[in-house]
Design brief:
Uridine Diphospho-n-acetylenolpyruvylglucosamine Reductase, domain 2; cell wall biogenesis/degradation; 4-stranded mixed β-sheet; Uridine Diphospho-n-acetylenolpyruvylglucosamine Reductase, domain 1; 3 domains; Uridine Diphospho-n-acetylenolpyruvylglucosamine Reductase, domain 3; alpha+beta
Length: about 350
């Protein structure tokens, strides 16, 4: 536990855009977290909890304390049947958790391979990819309740999961809970979700394993997504949420855009890939300053090397305006803007 002042956030966020926090501290246990929150220096200051820094855009210096979880550990607990409960500390890299599960021969989260960020952030965001959401596998989340000043265990019915939504984002609870660990339900049985197009070919394989699915997901993601650790490719992953529209709206869109991709939802609405909308609004490779729409996946905005936050903000606004003008759909950021 080390409280640092005037801390440069660029190295600990995947956009790698300069901003400073008044204070920054990392903790590896609930006790350390409680001790930090009790420090006289941070009383009355705003508090922001950050995992891998893969879903934040700091638009200015942060006037409070940024807390980083370093809570580690991955365990598997099996019962008499095929179900296994896998638990990871909030500070673990999400993809490390997925890899551990696949190497152990457990199935259920392999489709979520290579999603950047920490385990704690995954629970907050309800991450999803290739037909699977974390909510599909969640068993419980252990969190520190800052109001009650103790650990609590939150069950699926309490987590209020929706598309990129959770209890942790609701106004009445935002900032109250700090994720300490996440437990998911896995299985040793061969139960895979191969509904996403490029994964369907795997159904023909004999003795398919979760590691096979993981490798294919990684191939797909490598082929079209930039690596935030490479200079000139800093990014926060999917910048916008995929919009959901009514059946009537979708039918009107199909009349003008017959090849528009879509994913029917159980409630009758339709999800449309935001990346497709951005590309077909003519924004592939669009730039503002050092920020660019990534040509191989238009859902991603990259820092080409010298972007400042205002470049990303301006480009995201341009994307929203053009998609609204072209399709009548307002895109909403998945990335969290921190600042003015």
């Amino acid at each position: 536990m080390n409280l640092q002042s005037n801390f440069d956030l660029a190295p600990v966020t995947t956009f790698h855009i300069r901003a400073r926090a008044r204070y920054y501290a990392s903790y590896s246990s609930v006790r350390e977290l409680a001790d930090i929150l009790a420090m006289p220096e941070v009383q009355g200051l705003p508090v922001l909890h950050m995992g891998g820094g893969s879903n934040f855009l700091f638009t200015c210096d942060y006037p409070g304390i940024v807390l980083h979880s370093a809570v580690s550990g991955i365990t598997f607990a099996g019962g008499d049947g095929p179900e296994v409960l896998a638990t990871a500390g909030a500070g673990e890299r999400w993809d490390d958790f997925v890899e551990h599960a696949c190497r152990a021969g457990y199935n259920g989260i392999e489709n979520l391979s290579m999603i950047p960020g920490s385990v704690g952030a995954a629970a907050v965001q309800n991450i999803g990819a290739y037909g699977v959401e974390l909510a599909d596998r969640i068993h419980s989340v252990t969190a520190y309740d800052t109001v009650l000043a103790r650990e609590v265990v939150l069950l699926p019915s309490e987590l209020h999961y929706g598309y990129r939504q959770s209890l942790f984002k609701e106004p009445h609870a935002e900032g109250r809970y700090v994720v300490i660990a996440v437990t998911v339900r896995l299985t040793s049985e061969p139960a895979f979700n191969l509904a996403y197009g490029p994964l369907r070919e795997l159904a023909a394989l004999d003795s398919l394993t979760s590691m096979d699915v993981r490798r294919r997901v990684m191939e797909i993601r490598h082929s079209k997504l930039p690596d935030p650790d490479v200079k000139g490719q800093g990014n926060a992953g999917s910048f916008f949420k995929n919009p959901v529209v009514s059946q009537d709206k979708f039918h009107r869109l199909v009349a003008e855009w017959p090849d528009i991709p879509s994913y029917p939802l159980s409630d009758g609405e339709v999800k449309i890939p935001a990346g497709w909308l951005i590309e077909h609004a003519g924004l592939k490779g669009a730039r503002v300053g050092g920020a660019m729409v990534y040509p191989r996946q238009c859902l991603v905005i990259v820092n080409t090397g010298d972007a400042v936050a205002s470049d990303v903000v301006a480009l995201s606004g341009k994307i929203q305006d053009e998609v609204l003008r072209t399709f009548g759909i307002r895109l909403h950021p998945e990335v969290i803007f921190v600042g003015d």
